[in-house]
Amino acid sequence: MSTDTEGRSRLVTDAGYIAGAMLLLYVVFLILGTLQGYPVAGIISSLQRVTFLVAVYGLAVLALNLHWGYAGLFNIGVAGFMAVGVYTSVMLTAPVGASPPGLGLPLPVGILGGMLAAALVGLIAGLPALRLRSDYLAIMTVAVSEIIRFTYNSNTFSQFTGGASGFDSIPPGPIRQLLLQDASSIISEPTPLGAAIFQFMEFSGIGWISLGRPDTINILSTLLIVVVLVLVYAFLVRAVNSPYGRVLKSIREDEVAAQSLGKNTSRFKLKTFMLGCALMGLAGIMWFGAIGQSSVYPNAFRPEITFYIFIALIIGGAGSNTGSVLGGALFAGLLFEAPPRVATILTDALGVTNAPDTIIGALGPIASGQLTPMLGFLLDNMSQLRFIFVGVLLIYLIQRRPEGLLGHRSEIAAATDLSVRPSQSKGGETDE
Amino acid sequence: MGASATTARGRELLARLGVAVTLGGAVLLLIDLLAQLARVDLWIIGGELAFSQLMNYLWTGLTLGLIIGLAGVGLSLTYSILNFANFAHGDYLTLGAFSGWSVAYVIAGLGTIDLASLILVDAPSSNVGASVTNTPVAVVVGLVVAIVVTVALGLALDRAVYKPMRNSEGISLLIASIGVAFILRYLAALIFGTGRRGITAPSEIPSMTVLGVQVNAHQLTILVVALVAMMAIHLLLQRTKIGKAMRAMADNRDLARITGIPTERMITATWVLGSGLAGASGYMLVLARGTLGFNDGYLLLLLIFAAVILGGIGSVYGAIVGGLLIGITSRVALVWVPGEFGRPVAFGLMILFLLFRPSGLFGGVETA
């Protein structure tokens, strides 16, 4: 009974963490939008974009957390499994006549097929690889993900994959199909439901909020992804607290001990690897597929994106599902999305005009005591600077706080909490 | 008990089967290669392949392999002595290339071209006219600077990042090295820009035809520098006390420590050797390709890993042989697969080794 209330209170704290992080992000982007003088619709659409990034990062980080945080499998081929998921799903759902052609199947089949394909690739890669040392597994998974990317990128298969320019014929997402009679055209006649929703969102009675159709569709699509994230989160929380999850944690802590208790650890690892790969496939589908960005091209799946997801997991704390979502939110919002906009605002506010193009042009004026050119140069190059900062942060975290924000919380592996012992157990000998 | 014995036996069988299939495939490819050269066409084997084309693949593969091999020596040593896979090693190459060519440009173009664009390696390559025959002093000084700067970088990074983590496990160090990779790569992008640029002047590089292969002066330079460097590494490892100590460390760290080998000093020596070679191979990568971008070293990293794993982690000679194998494989593979699959084939070879012979070709023989 005590564990029950404890579980509930932890659930409340976790919800609090995530709500707090989202509130923080929304306030930050509200302020950024206001400072940039965005119209209300523009601010709302920037909040939608942040929410979208948080949700898709959350999905990917949760999947990686299952591998690394719970099973101790150091997989750095996340990008490859996401690519397999989304490519398979668009190949299944694209219209038959399009180029590259698809099979014209409905989206749910595409999503399931994409996840299955990612799991299958996970099986093929994992079957031999999971017995390797963890650093070998790391190198092998990143190689697998690069082979996948090169294959999708190749000219040889471009009639199926679209080659380097990517997959063009992605069918419109479910929200469009729900709201528009001709889903491929944004200006087509809305369905009755669509008419009602569009009218509601375009309602300018209050005088200041009026969202057009694209914004409305984006917001609803993002909400759909958030729902998927909540479902995956709930599923994973349940899974890792089940007997299956307890075996996983025992493998992570001490594989030999788990084996000697009669658990077939390699089968558990393989199953977990496949499950995680399927979820990475799902993350890829939500991120780049019809519901998300609707753009699928090979170079979106460079190893960098794997590292971003990894850094998000380390920020949040490996081994914690809530930490995964939290880390994804903080990385996507504060480290990825915010810096370029802060730079724009600062450039305007400081009145930095014609900043030098090169670092030498910026260093010269420092000698004569002028710091503005350097500042202007750095602000112009914020997209590089933020990755330097990400690198520094990663090193700092791994040196000083390897457990991340929430990874320090011990999750109870046993069915009952063994650390809380009933007081009558005084049988043990004291060591004096 | 019985079940686990069965799975163990099954696994062994599977491994043997894998080796057999791999060898069988290799033999088949060899027969096919000969058939193609002889212009024989038998069902799936055979076809037409010009001898000069094959020689061309071998030659370009050899130059790439030498570069990968030299870079691999450093990666292999840090992998075995510090016990982690350094994901920043590729970016050491990039920094070496940029710093070296920056100085080479300044020497080659000083007085005629604006200094800032020379320092930033941004001047038009045909104006600078950098090549080993046209501006020999600049190219040689650039190579030395590339080595010196990368050594300094390697030592500074060891002190700042890896030294406080000496007792951490490999995965933590690996993650830290990913952070280092980000810093180095985007520092290069910040200073030198993200555009790919031509560095050497193609019109200034003399070339001749040997056995139907175009051999240019820069490829010969790579060959000479790499052979000299390999000879020097060989002598260092076999004749000097520090080299022997390094081999002992790579072979068995604890045993080496018991015999009184100073760990920290050996680690410093490892970084000096490894970073220096990385800087040199980054610099020479530009000689081979003629262009440089801020991602270049990082894009080569997996091939370097492949070389190190093929040769066996910790083996210096293995890294060189592995580099040659990977370089040549990635080019000769083009006999059978389209150009864009040269790299995936090399990765595939590495995966096969990881699965069936993780100790590599020279594993067990070690560095002796």
Automatic annotation (TrEMBL), chain A:
The chain crosses the membrane at residues 15-38, 50-70, 76-97, 109-130, 217-236, 273-293, 305-335, 383-399. One of its GO terms (molecular function) is branched-chain amino acid transmembrane transporter activity. CDD domains: TM_PBP1_LivM_like (cd06581). It comes from the Archaea. It is a multi-pass membrane protein. GO terms for cellular component: plasma membrane. Signal peptide: none annotated. It is found in: Cell membrane. This is Branched-chain amino acid ABC transporter permease. It comes from Halosegnis rubeus.
UniProtKB/TrEMBL annotation, chain B:
GO terms for molecular function: L-isoleucine transmembrane transporter activity; L-leucine transmembrane transporter activity; L-phenylalanine transmembrane transporter activity; L-valine transmembrane transporter activity. GO terms for cellular component: plasma membrane. Keywords: Amino-acid transport, Cell inner membrane, Cell membrane, Membrane, Transmembrane, Transmembrane helix, Transport. It is a multi-pass membrane protein. InterPro entries: ABC_transp_permease, BCAA_transport_permease. Signal peptide: none annotated. It holds the Pfam family BPD_transp_2. It is found in: Cell membrane. The keyword Iron does not apply. The chain crosses the membrane at residues 13-37, 57-80, 92-117, 137-158, 170-192, 217-237, 266-286, 298-326, 333-356. It comes from the Archaea. One of its GO terms (biological process) is L-isoleucine import across plasma membrane. PANTHER family: BRANCHED-CHAIN AMINO ACID TRANSPORT SYSTEM PERMEASE PROTEIN LIVH, HIGH-AFFINITY BRANCHED-CHAIN AMINO ACID TRANSPORT SYSTEM PERMEASE PROTEIN LIVH. Belongs to the binding-protein-dependent transport system permease family. LivHM subfamily. This is Branched-chain amino acid ABC transporter permease. The lineage of its organism: Archaea, Methanobacteriati, Methanobacteriota, Stenosarchaea group, Halobacteria.
